[in-house]
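WARN retry 2 of 3 for item q-0093 after timeout on previous attempt; input resubmitted unchanged.
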Amino acid sequence: MNPTALVYDFDGTLAPGNIQEHRLIPEYLGTTKDEFWAEVRRRNRAHDADQILIYMQLILERAHEAGKGITREVLKAQAEGAPLFAGVIEWFERIDAYAKTLGLELEHYIVSSANEEMIQGTGIAGRFKKIFASKYIYDGRGHAVWPAAVVNYTTKTQYLFRINKGVDTYWDDEAVNRWSPMEERPIPFERMIYIGDGDTDIPSMKMVRFQGGHSIAVFDPDQWSSGAAQEKAYKLIAEDRAHFVVPADYTERSQLDVTVKGILGRIARASAAPELMAHF
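OK item q-0093 returned
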């Protein structure tokens, strides 16, 4: 079986919107998503700072102002019941079974700027071999005090190399930077499919394409009628960022389902021994 990776962004890719917006921001922090993100943008520019660091700091500040703490348990609980796109729950078992018929062993990964702890609170967390996302360090009482890892639009690419080389930690920079022959890496880029939804995924899409892998851009079907969604899809295709742009619909026989299966078939043919090529 040839290991093959499906790598997903989270917000806007597997789930609509940002995961913090469903319960954490309005219910636990007691503010609106518009006010929260407006303040993130204001500080981002005022301090010439990384936007992900700013939103992680603001979560801690707003919780402190409300007399509450941020713990792993709180973040996971605030993600319970978060909406997912159609078909996501059933997707993993079905696509894994299909891949096996082609001689491929699928591994699923997340590379996202969202909170790792919140993603861990969703009903699909157990489907992923590794979740690389922004997360906190906790003190002896279990309260978040500082960012432990920050995943932004450019640092996402390093996690693709970690997957490529079989490095499943954030800290082991030596292993991820160590040279190894392409053919000896656990998951060659040629057997990697990246699925994302927009601007923050462009460097990853471009890098995966450059390395011989495959990139798919998805969009929220409910937002397609807006000019902005159509313009984004146009640019992703015209600027050669993504191989395919399809709705974020993971149900059987959807455009995404058919597209991924087609790519898996291509990977299987390329991976097959010459004597087996006749079977594909």
